[in-house]
Amino acid sequence: MSRRIREDISIRLFDPKMITIALFLVLLYFHDQLRYSAAQLQFGFYSETCPSAESIVRDVVQQAVTNDPGKAAVLLRLQFHDCFVEGCDGSILIKHGGNDDERFAAGNAGVAGFDVIDEAKSELERFCPGVVSCADIVALAARDAIAEAKGPFYEVPTGRRDGLIANVDHAKNLPDVQDSINTLKSKFREKGLSDQDLVLLSAGAHTIGTTACFFVIPRLDAQDPTINSEFFQILRSKCPQGGDVNVRIPLDWDSQFVFDNQIFQNIKNGRGVILSDSVLYQDNNMKKIIDSYLETNQSSKANFAADFTKAMIKMGAIGVKIGAEGEIRRLCSATNYRFLAGVGGFNIIGKVKSAVERFCPGVVSCADIIAIAARDAIITAKGSFYEVPTGRNDGRISNVKNAEKLPDAQDSIATLKAKFREQGLTNRDLVLLSRCAYHRIDGMLLCHATVDFFQVLRLKCPRGGYVCFKIPLDWDGKFQFDNQVLRSKCTTPH
Ligand code: HEM
């Protein structure tokens, strides 16, 4: 570089104008970094890792709402109940089998839509296994459900990871229909949501959907004076004293299927259906907020659709887990277990279950589906057909400790035999069901890898190499359901 050019560059670098520009660029960079770390989530988080993620969720939601228009409200409510416990981390989806899962909390009574989330997850696992979190599916499904109900569309920031904990006790403090206005306000404030968010998200979201009479009867029995007297009679006829608490009635009277601000008018006129909606108009500040959406003067009228979507995005960011926190569940109803490393196929079982539930809800156990799917997988691999006896019930307990007894690739032959025996299985079963243990059990030659084969394996799995790289268990016969594995060299440590 000539001296002249060098001098030119150094002069320009120390030019005050250049320093100002450089400073500005540095600040801009850090501002962006701060903005992203504060917001945590990103728009289009899956644009590179799973470009079709959002369209897959949308298709599943569209189909579900077409089959049952009530599903739109169900999916919107699901996100609220997910986000208010442990943050928006899909914890409400977990079903370990006992009654102590979060979803069984009293405050979650009637929450549904799990089948739609499971179905979307199955599809996503087919296209981008292990990439899209269940928590994000819940958020996207709520957005798409709102759009299906002709509500406003909004971009959903994504990148949530799935939680590892789901406990009924952690859902004790959900906002309740009987809560006072002050309690409701403080429960929302605890989640970083303002009074305006409370109005928009609770009453606003109730512009679609229904409630069970269970939540209405107590206020009718108590002769709640805030209910318009004519409307009181209507409600009483739908939800009579001592009547069926499961009968469902619209939350937004006369406008149940339209995503609009009619519910605010109803609340103002004493036609709110549940107490937690009506109680909002008893508070001066909340009253002003509700009235701002009912202004007749269009120029000063608050924009319900725009404000509602902002509040949804805010709610969708409560306590999110990002980066290395949590996990990406393979199945939305269960956390990924440490001891099931490498075990897959959950998405297929989830998909089969969704399909079976459509035809015979609550009839076929997941345990039977696994048994039948294993048989069908064997047939697909050109193995022989066998009838599968069915009638298994699904378990109620699922604990990581109980999986510690699984046979391990490093177990000695004695331990393997004992572990199979504990399950009522013979040595022959061990040979047939596992892999290459046959030679050792029969007292024949131990199944040492030959020198040649050792080299082949070492080449595939070099010391310090990528441990997730997969190689066939049945060398030379990997796609054939045959007994080659018994004849050939041992490819596993046992
Ligand atoms: C003050 C807080 C809230 C309370 C006390 C409350 C209470 C309720 C109750 C009692 C029901 C009837 C449930 C049933 O019978 O199945 C209901 C339904 C519903 N809630 Fe809320 N809610 C609140 C906030 C929210 C929020 C924040 C959202 C969403 C952003 C929401 C969305 C819905 C929807 C869409 C339904 C109708 C569900 C259906 O049709 O199955 N709610 N809510």
UniProtKB/TrEMBL annotation:
It catalyses: 2 a phenolic donor + H2O2 = 2 a phenolic radical donor + 2 H2O. The keyword Disulfide bond applies. GO terms for molecular function: heme binding; lactoperoxidase activity; metal ion binding. Its cofactor is heme b; Ca(2+). Binds 1 heme b (iron(II)-protoporphyrin IX) group per subunit. Binds 2 calcium ions per subunit. Keywords: Calcium, Disulfide bond, Heme, Hydrogen peroxide, Iron, Metal-binding, Oxidoreductase, Peroxidase, Secreted, Signal. Residues 40-336, 333-488 form the Plant heme peroxidase family profile domain. Its EC number is 1.11.1.7. Heme b binds at H206. One of its GO terms (biological process) is hydrogen peroxide catabolic process. Disulfide bonds join C50-C128, C83-C88, C134-C332, C213-C239. The keyword Isomerase does not apply. Ca(2+) 1 binds at D82, V85, G87, D89, S91. The active site is at H81. Substrate binds at P175. InterPro entries: Haem_peroxidase, Peroxidase_pln, Peroxidases_AS, Secretory_peroxidase. It is an enzyme of class 1 (oxidoreductase). Ca(2+) 2 binds at T207, D252, D260. Coiled coil: none annotated. The record marks R77 as: Transition state stabilizer. PANTHER family: PEROXIDASE 25-RELATED (PTHR31235). Belongs to the peroxidase family. Removal of H(2)O(2), oxidation of toxic reductants, biosynthesis and degradation of lignin, suberization, auxin catabolism, response to environmental stresses such as wounding, pathogen attack and oxidative stress. These functions might be dependent on each isozyme/isoform in each plant tissue. This is peroxidase. It comes from Arabidopsis suecica.
